[in-house]
Model the fold of this input.
Amino acid sequence: MQMFRNLMCALCFYAVSLFVSAGDGTTLYSLLDVPVSTSAAGGGGVQIASASNDLSLVFHNPGMLTDVYDSDLSLGFLSYPAGIRLGSLAYARPINTRSSWMLGLRYMDYGEMLRTDETGALLGQTQAKDIALTAVYAWKLAQNLQAGGSLHLVQSRLDDYYSFAILADLGIYYVHPNHLLRLAWTLRHMGAQLVTYEDHFERQPIDMQLGMSYKLEHAPLRFHATGWQLFDGGWSRDRVDPDLEMSRFQRASALFFRHLILGVDFVPSEQFMLQLGYNYRRVSDLGIEQRTAFGGFSAGVQFRVKHVDIGAAYARYHVSGASLQMSLACKTSLFGL
Done:
């Protein structure tokens, strides 16, 4: 485990060195940016400081792993527009009172697509698939401060083209002694592409995120705010449509909210939770007039039936597309393991 910690420290210095080099922000492996957790999906798509009892949140912030979870096995399924499907699996175990490990698997099938040549002539159909194997190690830095690192082996296949990369995430998670306030920081997608689709090496943009969660002391409400894509081209590549009649303040506000996700949870008990989230980027990226009134909004629910946690999330993108996500989590001891 000491070697794993040293590797995470080295990756941290590597990330700092990349801070001055801004990429164009093009996502290379979309699978890594899809919300695996129903808690994250219901809260706007990105949550790294949530207090939800959802093991899949570790995919978003490895520093959360040493927090107390009632389940050590999680299964997830996501249905995206255009026939895109994603499945996930996570299994975690404690090492001692201060550290834990997790193994995870994510698989995305982009469905069948038409295959054409350079002239547009139809040659048949083709497929695209991504798979990522994740190993996580997390440890307590102090009583209320946790840190963790994730290592991802990512394989992508687009028709006859194949790509392979090794990427890593770092995460820190702080829980205030009163358990009402939670803060988090992550640095995601550090690493390199080892096998390219063709002869050109590409780099997944590094995504720095900051998160906060605060629960009202005398009310069953918990509020979330997450800043994402905060450097490595995340700001410089964002452009507001120049044809829109907007003041300088309105343009600055639009750019700011493209990097902010807001959410609220209704938590009347530990066995039930309702969520509502808003992601402005999902609306602004469409660039069409036919936007639904609920574009950018997402909703989720989590509840417990006996010893099984069930989660569901729904996100609306535009008039023709939405996503539906389901998850199940439990203790493996239920199966005698």
